[in-house]
């Protein structure tokens, strides 16, 4: 690594000896600073790579990389409030109200596309989401309300440290969660309970 600094007995010219020691010290400090900078750079890159495949945000992704969730957990809160705890890929959990949690569960439960090339859950049209919202209450909802719910989901994800782009939208196809179809904890397609 760094060569040993030899310390000789003081000689007649102690000023020259001190200068030599200071020069050696500056060299060692320079090497240490370079190593620390390299360590920090490696740590930062490792963190980016660890988070690149998940919904957690930690900075810019490498070019071409997309955030994808591999695990989604939606469980009722233990306090009996009717809210739900949501966690993506084992990250920090956050609370969602029953209706918003139901929308998240519904868009995360889309079936696999028939072509099979897309590894993510299938798309849910805005009309399907609107109909799923109307089922329990028999109250009609507008598509604009669905768009508001989708935007609120994105905002809530960002607020809780996740990438809001995990909620994907497409004008023709609809809405989905960027969740691997083979993910653990994948919600079953069922009637929402809100």
Protein architecture, described:
With 194 residues, the protein is of the alpha+beta class. The chain folds into 2 domains: 1-52; 69-184, Orthogonal Bundle (Arc Repressor Mutant, subunit A). Helix content is 41%, strand content 15%. The protein contains 4 helices and 6 strands, in the order αβββαααβββ. The chain has helices spanning 14-52, 98-108, 126-137, 143-159, and strands spanning 69-76, 84-88, 94-96, 167-170, 174-177, 179-184. The chain has a 4-stranded mixed β-sheet. Strands 4-5 form a two-stranded antiparallel sheet. A hairpin with a 3-residue loop joins strand 4 and strand 5.
- SSE succession: HEEEHHHEEE
Overall number of structural domains: 2
The CATH architecture classification of the largest domain is: Orthogonal Bundle
Rounded to the nearest angstrom, the radius of gyration is: 27 Å
Percentage of residues in DSSP E strands = 15-25%
Oligomer: single chain
Number of helices: 4
Kindly report the spatial arrangement of strands forming the biggest sheet.
3-2-1-6
Poorly predicted regions: 58-65, 184-194
Average the pLDDT over all residues and give the rounded result.
78
The overall strand count is 6
- Tell me roughly what share of residues is in helical segments: 40-55%
CATH superfamily assignment of the largest domain?
Winged helix-like DNA-binding domain superfamily/Winged helix DNA-binding domain
